[in-house]
Design brief:
Length: about 550
């Protein structure tokens, strides 16, 4: 059970009985260029009292916080990541890192190196392989992995989290044999002889059940992710798909005063009782539970994204719908009745349409727009469906870095015509739709500079041609995606997202002006300070 829920009301949200964290610091910042996120400039030093921005007059004697002189620095509203996975990031940091592996042989070698450090029979877990990076872009077969690691069950997640590779021992542990049928919404890939290849897609991944981490391991992983986010300048993360057990460990860290990252929790849809209870927050507002994360389809890289027409590079295959329109509607109505926001993963155009169709049938007081329901990713949208986001008040929560990761192969998946309607954040902007930005870490790097770069350039950091250059945003538009628009997506635009008197002093400080520096310098910018509610939670000035 979660400790001490729902006791009083404050700013419209019930408050969990959690002891207050350390008092918010008073602070003064001077000498830096200040981006307010509004049409107005900030005329001088920035003053913070009791965790909020105050008028630009010196504070009364005895209340002044430390004056931080930051010549040449750039102060901006605290960066948010509107779609990340904290436990997933912490787990990725703890397990075999397969990101960037240039071949399947390299994947096998990294996994084997880990296996050599473990007792026989212990699971080898990892994540991050991407067959699209290899010379042979076909999905892998477990044979080489099983030969290299015969004495351990091995489970290696694909980079997008929508497919995994099991070795022979893990397949045997799961009871997956030639005649095993894939569950609805999943696929068991098979070789030419009809035997399981070891690759399981979407719902089929649940057939493999490695032992879960202990509560202590969950806490360690959450803290590792927490620290990584703060080091990269993130002041807030929208944590997508959180179970009650993981939330309990996060709240335990908060009670101990060790949790300083503002966190907007999107519950797992299976947490029926927590959803029914409705929105609540910790007494200091650092952890807010107000949303639910669900899935409509898989991912484009593993061809699990649900498309209206077949994949250009796999005829007669349209991907996987993981939920029905009726199922999404049922969850959406329950969320609306409880005052909760629903955020549904939809990448393919068929999945986006199914979610929009489900949302359109929801009935709630004040109208659907007041609930700010979201579609997570909104990566490929049919031309006819863009305007429906505006009409329904649905927010496309997008990750610009997906464009630069997918660009080597996405046009082959989609074909030229459909690619024109993918990664279309500027098209949403033109309709006046709020577009919160995130990264989807650990699918992508936690570093928000990568997303800012992708949104502003539509080009890979490694160079090469642009993809969807018509969707380029100005630097300030890109910054607002990770600040004001993300704050709007968590109902917090009155307190976060811009630098204005009375707002919470969540700030990110870089060593250069992200509005005017070169593209290369944007990626090289260094985080000097991360500040949450007036407290310095990361100081990178001496590094």
């Amino acid at each position: 059970m979660l400790a001490g829920l729902l006791v009083t009301m404050f700013v419209g949200l019930p408050v969990a009985q959690e002891p207050s964290a350390a008092p918010s610091a008073n602070l003064q910042l001077s000498g830096a260029a200040i981006f307010t996120g509004t049409p107005l400039d900030w005329p001088g030093p920035l003053y913070v009292r009791d965790g909020r921005i105050v008028d630009s007059e010196p504070m009364p004697p005895g209340t002044d916080g430390p004056m931080l002189a930051l010549p040449g620095a750039f102060v901006m509203p605290g960066l948010q990541d509107a779609h990340g996975h904290l436990l997933g990031l912490g787990t990725a940091l703890a397990e075999v890192d397969l990101v960037g592996a240039a071949s399947f042989a390299e994947v096998v070698a990294r996994a084997a190196a880990k296996a050599a450090t473990l007792p026989a029979g212990e699971w080898v877990l990892g994540r991050g392989w991407d067959q699209n990076r290899w010379v042979d872009t076909a999905m892998p077969h477990h044979a080489a992995l099983s030969a290299a690691i015969p004495d351990h069950p091995v489970w290696l997640g694909r980079v997008d989290g929508h497919a995994g590779l099991a070795n022979a021992r893990a397949l045997a542990a799961a009871g997956i044999v030639r005649d095993t049928a894939a569950p609805r919404g999943g696929e068991i890939l098979r070789d030419a002889a009809g035997e399981p290849s070891g690759v399981l897609v979407d719902a089929a991944m649940a057939l493999v059940q490695p032992p879960p981490p202990s509560p202590a391991a969950v806490r360690e992983r959450l803290l590792a992710a927490h620290d990584a986010c703060l080091q990269h300048g993130l002041t807030c993360v929208h944590d997508a798909g959180v179970s009650a057990a993981v939330l309990e460990q996060m709240l335990a860290l908060h009670r101990e005063g060790r949790w300083r990252l503002r966190t907007y929790v999107l519950l797992d849809p299976g947490e029926t009782e927590l959803i029914r209870r409705g929105p609540w927050r910790t007494d200091d507002g650092l952890v807010v539970v107000r949303a639910v994360k669900a899935y409509a389809d898989g991912a484009l890289g593993s061809r699990g994204a649900a498309l209206l027409a077949p994949y250009a590079d796999r005829p007669n295959w349209k991907g996987l719908l993981l939920n029905t329109t009726a199922g999404i509607h049922d969850l959406a109505q329950r969320c609306a009745d409880a005052g909760m926001q629903l955020c549904v993963h939809a990448i393919g155009d068929a999945a986006n349409r199914a979610v929009l169709d489900a949302y359109a049938t929801v009935r709630c007081a004040g109208g659907l727009a007041a609930r700010r329901f979201r579609i997570e990713h909104a990566q490929v949208v049919d031309a006819a469906d863009f305007v429906r986001f505006r009409g329904l008040g649905v927010l496309p929560s997008m990750q610009p870095v997906h464009l630069t990761s997918d660009m080597p192969w996405a046009p082959q998946r989609l074909g030229p015509e459909r690619t024109q309607y993918a990664y279309a954040w500027r098209r949403f902007h033109a309709l006046g739709v709020v577009v919160p930005f995130g990264s989807d870490f650990p699918v992508e790097p936690v570093d928000p500079r990568r997303g800012l770069y992708a949104a502003a350039t539509t080009r890979s950091p490694d160079g090469g041609d642009e993809l969807r250059p018509d969707q380029k945003l100005s630097r300030e538009q890109a910054l607002r995606g990770f600040t004001l628009h993300a704050a709007h997506a968590m109902f917090a635009e009155r307190d976060l997202g811009t630098l204005e008197v009375g707002k919470l002093a969540d700030l990110t400080v870089f060593d250069r002006d992200l509005r005017t520096c070169s593209d290369a310098d944007l990626l090289a910018a260094r985080v000097l300070l991360t500040i949450v509610a007036g407290r310095v939670v990361y100081d990178g000035r001496g590094r």
